[in-house]
Structure formats: C-alpha cells, structure tokens
Amino acid sequence: MTTEGFNLEGLLRSMQGDVMGLIGFIIFILLVLWFARFLIGKTKGEIGMTDEQAVSAKRTVRTVAGAIIILGLGGFAWHAVSVTAANRIPRSDVNKAGVYDQMNNVAQTPR
User: Fold this and answer.
1) How far apart are CA 39 and CA 33, in angstroms?
2) Integer angstrom CA distances of residue 82 from 12, 18, 19, 65, 76
3) Alpha-carbon distance 24 to 13, whole Å?
4) pLDDT per residue as tens digits for the range 11-37
5) Do residues 5 and 85 touch, judged by C-beta distance below 8 A?
6) How would DSSP label each residue in the chain?
7) How would residue 2 be classed by pLDDT, with cut points 50, 70 and 90?
C-alpha cells in the first residue's frame, strides 16, 4: 500500500490508539448524556421542575454533549492531519518497498 512516500497502513497503525481513545471518549459522553437525561426525568417532580423546564434541561444537556463530541472529533481530525503532515508514519526504504512489506518478507523467509 505504498504510493510515493505515503503509507496508508503506517498511518492507520500509528493512529490506532487515537481511534480507540476517540471511541472510548464518545461512549463515555453518550453514557453521561444518558445518565443526565435519566436523572432529569426521575427527579423533575422531586425538585419542583415543570415539564417545560425538564424538556429544556434535557435539550441543553443534549446540545452540550453534542458540542463536546464535535470538539472531540475536530481534535482527532486535527491530530490525524498533524500526524500525516509531520510524516511520523513509517517511511519507505531506499528501494521503495514498504516497511511492513519488508517485515512480512523477513517473517516468511525460512531460515
């Protein structure tokens, strides 16, 4: 998968931890959103909140959670661009064979 100095496999491998972190971040935010909406629904009568106020509070929580997720996705996209621009992905060797292709060839060569 090597094309003129860009190695997609290397990029994906270098971003694997970041992708897992992003997925965990989104799941965490969605769980917090669900819990906050659950608490608002359960306690609205106990704290004297009207139905309109409960709907408004749920809408506010949903908006804030959505904004946080969008900021997280934007940060991930910025990081992906900076990783690609900084050329931190594994480079091709002098013979233009991909680093991972060379590793696979070494692993498959009988000794």
Assistant:
1) 10
2) 14, 13, 15, 26, 10
3) 18
4) 788 888 899 999 999 999 999 999 999
5) no
6) -EETTEEHHHHHHHTHHHHHHHHHHHHHHHHHHHHHHHHHHHHTTTTT--HHHHHHHHHHHHHHHHHHHHHHHHHHHHHHHHHHHTT-SPPP-TT---HHHHHHHHHHS--
7) very low
Q: Which pTM was predicted?
A: 0.65
d(CA 46, CA 54): 12
Q: What is the largest CA-CA distance in the chain?
A: 77
Neighbours of 29 (CB within 10 A): 16
